[in-house]
Amino acid sequence: MEIITTVGELRDALEPGRLAGRTIGFVPTMGFLHEGHLSLIRESVTQSDVTVVSIFVNPTQFGPREDLDSYPRDAAGDARLCQDAGVDVLFMPTVEEVYPPGNRTGVEPGPLAEPLCGSFRPGHFRGVATVVAKLFNMVQPHRAWFGRKDYQQALVIQRMVRDLHVPVEVIALPTIREADGLAVSSRNAHLSPEARSRAACLSRGLFAALDAFRRGERDSERLLAIARAYLGETDSIQYLELVHAETLERIAGTVDAPAVMCTAAFIGGTRLIDNVLLSGSSDA
Ligand code: AMP
User: Is 149 in the pocket of ligand 1 (CB under 6 A)?
Assistant: First the structure.
């Protein structure tokens, strides 16, 4: 595995394979890798000739009062995990490499970026869409893997790729969870043992609503109430919403379209997000 920090070296490393017709798979991350990241990486390694993983804690997707400075990092541990997973290139650029001096251009993601996390984190998805567009241009992968854990993010990126005719196939994979249901996340490292045990209430609430949905409940308010009953264990709920799975528009009344229930909440000072697709299949 090569560890690369500049765009020039990255191009030099990938060009021979590209010219030889090898497929390039890409998994962008912010590091502190866990089983969620590894599920995407393993899929890329299986499906691609060459796999590139990026680790870049992107400052433009953090708000002024958010956790950029305290975001967990472990470059050496991440490199070991990537090596063991069969990654070919680990790309770890500096902020200056990604945002050269005078950098001004950005990607405006449009209406999919407005509800849910977008309404509580102004500018977040502009930062995400911009950095992913930059990374796609640097790596020029054939396919890129994202997690449905960040459901809105995956939709924003899929929309961006369509709107800007970016020649990358974006694939979203299911959320990897701990044994008690908590969605695996780098930020879980911030949870005290006490907060960690409460944190499973998010997935418990969402899966209780999914259970009710599968038993035939279709009233959006009743489904939300079922989930909300579990969220009392959080310190505060930022949002709990039932939205259309493709447009992210709020569903009021009867759920008669593909839907996803999404939540963001604070537990022990850490902001956690989770979601569940309301579908009959077990692939939630
Ligand atoms: P992050 O490093 O948190 O920016 O995440 C990098 C990628 O990993 C994103 O596409 C996330 O959606 C994905 N990811 C993070 N956590 C999980 C998880 N628990 N299951 C599946 N994918 C995940």
Answer: yes
